[in-house]
Amino acid sequence: MLKILKAIANDIGGKARRFGKVLNVSGQINKVTLLESCRELDGKKAVGVDGVTKEAYVKDLDANISKLSEKLRTDSYNPTPSRRVMIDKPGSSKKRPLGISCFEDKIVEKTVATLLSAIYETKFLDCSYGFRPGRNCHQAIQRVNELIMSKKVSYVVEADIRAFFDTLDHEILIKFLEHDIADKKHIRLIRKFLNAGIMEDGKYIEKEEGSPQGSVISPVLANVYLHYVLDLWFEKVVKKHCRGESYLVRYADDWVCMFQYEEDARKFYEVLPKRLGKFGLSVAEEKTRILEFGRFASASRKKRGLGKPETFDFLGFTFYCGQSYQTGRFKVGLKTSRKKTREKLKKLGEWVKERRNWKMSRIISGINRSLRGYYQYFGISGNSYSLNKLAQKVERIVFYYMCKRSQMRKLTWEKFGEILRKYLPLEKPRIYVEIRKCPTLFAEG
């Protein structure tokens, strides 16, 4: 967030604290803030239905921004429907819809999202980590790890909301926003984005619910919705009815709840569908369950003649009950989930297959770019084994497709390994984040 937007954010945040409701938010959307948003947007992203790129838009930037600012001032601005594309859904044969806005709409979305973030940063709870300044996935993972290791956690509720971004209720969201923002013009602008609809295969589809994944404004709106539906409810209601300790950690629409006692976990599990149903949401039953997990889970299950404690997934990692090599004491183990590993290997295999006739140096360079991002996310302390296994399988994929080339049919594994070591090394796994040293951002409850 640039300095000028930070200043506006601080001003709006101060008004929110002082008056409860914020007035004249739309007055902050002007040429200056629109220009700043334009400069921050990535010009390499996919284009909307009008096909206009950032490069084309900025050729006449002053004139374009002036026209846009005037439309917003006179309330004559109407966003263009977003272009829907279907992308692969990790670990599933299903496709996930992605909404791509036009570049000019992205400018307005980003400005509005910045202003909304400024208003709600003073309201959001510490359990929320997704799409907030200074917060990230690794901190959410660290928090779950820390709670299970240091608090009286014996049961975990792993839950998932079915098609959250597609079923978000517009009218309920508007009511939430009106609770904090008194500027009707700003509310009207957000409603326009929600009702803009989508274009798919040249056909216009009107949307009465949902906020398209991929749009700049969707993550902030999702946070506002779940702040009222889940976070505040858990903090103000659920905790008060629990006999023991209870905790929630949420990253966007991915979240886990932790409890000291089984009866508290079961009560929450039973009432959760009713709570979500009040706001037009539903639980994905196949992805929602209660499991025994924590310091006492192994001993408790052993006494009852059960197997090892179950595992659960959160943000691409599998959490499991382990032991420290040095002390033999309980620790939370973390490894890349099988679903994420399979997905990565499948994508890399398809990518190499399509480009197996390229120069080998070019293929390795492309693989390394992909692996670098993967290792930066999954390269956390304790996950070396999973990363090394993936690296070995990537080598085998490259070897397999190189042997398909006519000039390399006699290539041996030993010769291939020598080529990789001396001339074309593949990106090596490394630990980027020491998860137990990852900073936490909230006060202890």
Folded structure, characterized:
- With 445 residues, the protein is of the alpha+beta class.
- The protein has helices at residues 3-19, 31-40, 54-57, 61-73, 103-120, 137-150, 164-167, 170-180, 184-194, 218-238, 262-277, 297-303, 338-354, 360-378, 384-402, 413-422, and strands at 82-88, 95-100, 155-160, 198-200, 203-205, 246-251, 254-259, 289-292, 312-314, 317-323, 330-336.
- The strands form three sheets. A four-stranded mixed sheet has the order 2-1-4-5, with no helix packed on it. A four-stranded antiparallel sheet has the order 6-7-3-8, sandwiched between helices. Strands 9-10-11 form a three-stranded antiparallel sheet, with helices on both faces.
- Helix 13 packs parallel to helix 15.
- The longest helix has 21 residues, at 218-238.
- The protein is globular, with a radius of gyration of 25 Å.
- It starts with a helix and ends in a 23-residue tail after the last helix.
User: pLDDT average, as an integer?
Assistant: 88
Distance between the termini: 30 Å
Biggest sheet, spatial arrangement of strands: 2-1-4-5
Strand content: 5-15%
Structural class: alpha+beta
Count of DSSP helices?
Answer: 16
**Helix share bin:** 40-55%
How can the largest sheet be summarized? 4 strands, mixed
Count of DSSP E strands? 11
Low-pLDDT stretches are none
Give the CA-based shape. Answer: globular
What radius of gyration results from the CA coordinates? 25 Å
The helix-strand sequence is HHHHEEHHEHHHEEHEEHEHEEEHHHH
